[in-house]
Amino acid sequence: MVKHSITGDYFLSTKAYSGGAKNFHQEVIENPDSALTNYYYGRFLLGDKQYKEALPYLKKATSLDSDNPNYHFWLGVVYGSMVLQTNLWVNLATGCIFLSTPPFWIRGVDRKNTALMLQKVM
To answer: DSSP alpha helices (H): ranges in the chain?
Structure first.
């Protein structure tokens, strides 16, 4: 376990995400119920901007060790990165949909136009 932490921290600190992913891929296969190996493998995939691929590993790490706040934080980062990748953000409190391209926001009451805009964006 200490070996995994030292190795994982080394790859993260040097931003050698591809190398870390290669190193931990086999570890995840051999130890699928290790929260730590799932966490590091997910972090390396996240570092390489492979958000969809990182998601199941960070979810698994979080479910295996739900008391670890770092796992929850990085799971949230993956979800946020996936949302940003789609250029779409929904503010449930105001009912507005924000886009990274003009018109930047659409009122929730404009449902027909919202649906048309979402079709163009997605």
So the answer is: 2-13, 17-30, 35-47, 51-64, 69-85, 111-121
Question: Residue 73 burial (CB < 10 Å; 0-12/13-18/19+)?
Answer: exposed
Model confidence pLDDT, tens digit, residues 75-110: 988 888 887 666 555 554 555 555 544 444 444 444
pTM as predicted: 0.67
Backbone angles phi, psi at 90, to 5 degrees: -105, 125
Given a contact cutoff of 8 angstroms between Cβ atoms, the answer to whether 34 and 27 are in contact is: yes
| Rounded Cα gap, residues 18 and 65, in angstroms | 25
Please state, in angstroms and rounded to a whole number, the distance separating the CA atoms of residues 88 and 104: 9
Instruction: Classify domain 2-85 by CATH architecture.
Output: Alpha Horseshoe (1.25)
